[in-house]
Each structure stands twice: as structure tokens, then as C-alpha cells.
Design goal:
The chain is built from eleven helices and twelve strands. By secondary structure, the chain is α/β, with parallel strands linked by helices.
Amino acid sequence: MTGPRTSRYARDVAVVAFAQSDHLRRTDELSEVEMVMPVLHEVLAATGLKAGEIGFTCSGSSDYLAGRAFSFTMTLDGVGAWPPISESHVEMDGAWALYEAWVKIQTGEADTALVYSYGKSSPGSVRDVLTRQLDPYYLAPLWPDSVALAALQAQALIDAGETDEPALAAIAARSRADAGTNPHAQLRGAVPQGDYQVRPLRTGDCPPVGDGVAAVVLAAGDLARQLCERPAWITGIDHRIEAHGLGLRDLTDSPSTRTAAQHAGFFDAPVDTAELHAPFSSQEVVLRKALGLGDTVAVNPSGGALAANPMMAAGLIRIGEAAARIHRGASDRAVAHATSGACLQQNLVAVLEGDRA
């Protein structure tokens, strides 16, 4: 077998295993450690590695969401931190933890990495919590919640003639129909659009609130082929950020996604799969335009964030789902996208490819 078409980096790095929890509306009976441990055991078992054989461990979560400082240190009990391990944490979606782990392997300081992320959104009001991401002087004091801001973006798209409410409903219906084959999804099959949350977005256009965990294992070079029959090589990865102020950007477009995709080599060849982190149906419209995706590309075949949107893990899940399709031969070249912040403020793009004969 040959490796990825062209490597633009010092080392070839691949996703060799992916695991996730069942995403549920509430997990009151489980601590974060109890949520994380089964997923970590599953992803390590898929490679045959033990925790002590992992060169670097990196997690993504939000202490603010958990409601206590340094909460991520508790989940290290699920990893096993003795004997001492090389470990780091990002206060971000796990996709950015993966980026840090990928950089660590590129430097040669590790050959393998365990990346995991988790979030429990159920204890509080996510719509209110996410207002704390906003500008603290002018915008946050107005308490515009995440759905209201997404509705502004959706209305801008409608006013620009780029979509309409039936088209948004069709995106939601397709996503949840595709989730019918995903045993981990929180919402599956026919889900009514429901009432308006904030016009023009109905319940069906918005992501479910829930709890969940995801984990991947990365490995370099020949070791990746030893651990996985068909590794998902990360042939490109990049992330960009746009202006914090919503009034300073065009909400109908995502130039940061386009720029990240360009630097990741996305436009060098066609893709057959796109796992897009689009928590709202209207955001899929924006991302499709930014990436120039046509109808031949399978978009969010897992159901995407409209079927399960665990905070701090949904972006890593997009990378994991794209990699899993390559592992089982359902995809040859895929793009995975993760976002953070209001209205697609921060965007990470990863291009994954499988070996070809």
C-alpha cells in the first residue's frame, strides 16, 4: 500500500482509532470521570495499546461549563496518571486538542497520542452560558443567547437569497435521517421541526442539548500501519479565527474556514465526505459555500451536530467520524471541520486520506 498522496509535513500522522459515548440528554448519575473511562478503554483497546505506551495525552473541555476550576484534572483518573505521563489540556473543543497532539508528534517528541474531550451541558442553560463568549463590554451585557445569534445569521442568509426556511428544514431532516444508522446519536429519524425558537429558526434547526465524550488515537508513520489496517492520514490541518465583533464580519460567509481549508490542502483534490460542525442548519449553508461542496459529497453522513452536539466534543467527533469512514473503506478523502464561538467565529479544517493500492 502507498501512503497519502503528498505529505506537506515533517511526519506522516494518522488517526488510527476513534470511539465515542452514546450522547444523552442527561447523565445526572455519572461523573465526568465515569463518562470518560469507558470511551478511553474502548479507543485504546482498538489499537492494542496500554495507557503507559501512549507518548502524549491531550484533552479538551471547559472548566466554565463544568462550573469548577481545573475540573479537567479529575478526568485524568480515567486515563491513569501514574506512572507520570506527558499530558496537556486545551480549554477548547477536542479538535484543538487533536491539533496540539498532532504538533507534538510533528516535533518528534512523541510517536503516539491519546486525544479525548467531553462535556456535560445538561446541568445548566447552555444558551445563557454561551453568552459569556461574547465581547464583555458591548455585547455580553445584552445577553443575546446562542440561538438568537444563529437566528441573525440565518435571517441574513435568507435576506441574501441564499436559503429559505424549507431549505433549512430539509437540511435538518436529512441530518437526522442519516443519524438513523448512528447508534450514538442523540436524535435519530424523523424529528418534527417544531415551533420557532427565534425566528426563522425552529426547534429542528437547532442542536440538541446533551452530554457526551469522544476520543481518538494518533500515530506516526509505520507505527500507524501496525496499529490500524487502513489509517486515516491527516494530510492537512489548519485553523483560523475571525473578528470577535459580529458587526465586523459578513455572517453569510466564512472566510476563515476557506482560508484554513486552503492551507490544509483541501482544494488540491476532490473529497467524497465532509463532516461539518454546523450546530444550526443555517451554518451548513455557510460552510458548504465556503468549501464549495457539491451534491456529490456526502455531508454529515453521521447526522452531524444536529443529531448530537456535546459541547467540547462535537468538533473532535467530526474528525473521528471522517476517520472512521476511511478506516472501514467508505471514504478515500474526507474533510472534517470544527468550530467554536458565535456564528462560526473560529474554524479548524482537517483533510484525511486513506492508503490506496
